[in-house]
UniProtKB/TrEMBL annotation:
InterPro entries from the UniProt entry: MetalloPept_cat_dom_sf (IPR024079), MtfA_fam (IPR010384), MtfA_N (IPR042252)
Name of the molecule in the record: Mlc titration factor MtfA, regulates ptsG expression
Gene Ontology molecular functions: aminopeptidase activity; metallopeptidase activity
Family matches, as SUPFAM superfamilies: Metalloproteases ('zincins'), catalytic domain
């Protein structure tokens, strides 16, 4: 058995035996997540409950000797719970834990081109997730970067709930798939057009890679800069509010603006 799997199991058993975190713990955690102030109180209460269950049922493994402190694990659990606010933690049933690197990590990639030549290269990543596997994030020294990486990877996990990484997360009955895809495609095209003309939209340019990256990047902006996203694309903001069953603030009043 690989050493890291054995370590994950031992950490899981130890964490299951510990009492659940109290309100003071979550207040401390939320102070390390700048955008937590954007989350309405009722939603924040549910996030805390889900996060406590996440801590009790998932394991955390620090790669390259990174110590997993209560604060670090709580931070990640809180953000994972935020992504699961509407759906509940069932979307995370297919993996057992989170691997945390102290900095961006490299993986060896291999692919064959159109004429059959095989190429290999090292790819530097901030995070990674795949169906059935652990969620991997890099913590690093930049707290703001770390916050976005965690949101991004757990949004990927939400997208994978149906086994397909296609930018379509589990949708509520009020949001038909056709409407979600239309809103996302329109926003993605606008993003690409604005980047081509030198504008600075609120979404990270990485979102233009395709729907599978647009959704997690849009999720980052929805929670961290809700007013900017609502002003840039009200339809996208409203669709994400349905996906997550909450409306983060502070908001801007765009009711008098024309489309």
């Amino acid at each position: 058995m690989p050493a890291w799997i054995d370590a994950l199991r031992r950490l899981w058993r130890a964490r299951r035996e510990r009492p659940g975190p109290d309100a003071a713990f979550w207040e401390t955690v939320e102070r390390t997540i700048p955008y937590s102030a954007n989350i309405p109180p009722a939603a924040r209460d549910r996030v805390r409950r889900l996060a406590a269950r996440f801590l009790a049922t998932k394991t955390f493994y620090g790669a390259h000797g990174l110590p997993i402190t209560d604060a670090l694990a709580g931070n990640i659990a809180w953000q994972a719970a935020l992504v699961a606010h509407r759906t509940g933690l069932g979307i995370y049933d297919d993996f057992v834990g989170v691997i945390v690197y102290p900095e961006p990590f490299r993986v060896r990639r291999r692919f064959a081109d159109e004429i059959g030549l095989v190429h290999e290269f090292d790819d530097e990543l901030y995070g990674e997730t795949w169906d059935g596997g652990p969620v991997i994030v890099s913590w690093g020294t930049d707290e703001e970067e770390g916050v976005q990486v965690v949101l991004h990877e757990f949004a990927h996990r939400l997208d994978l709930a149906d086994g397909a990484l296609d930018g379509v997360p589990p949708l509520p009955p009020s949001l038909p798939r056709a409407r979600w895809e239309s809103v996302m495609e329109t926003a993605l095209q606008r993003l690409q057009d604005e980047l081509d003309t030198g504008k600075s939209p609120p979404l990270d340019p990485y979102a233009e890679e395709g729907p599978e990256e647009f959704f997690p990047v849009a999720t980052e902006t929805f929670f961290t800069e809700p007013a900017a996203l609502a002003a840039w694309d009200p339809a996208l903001f409203e669709a994400l509010a349905e996906v997550y069953a909450l409306r983060p603030g502070p908001m801007v009043d765009f009711s008098c603006k024309t489309a």
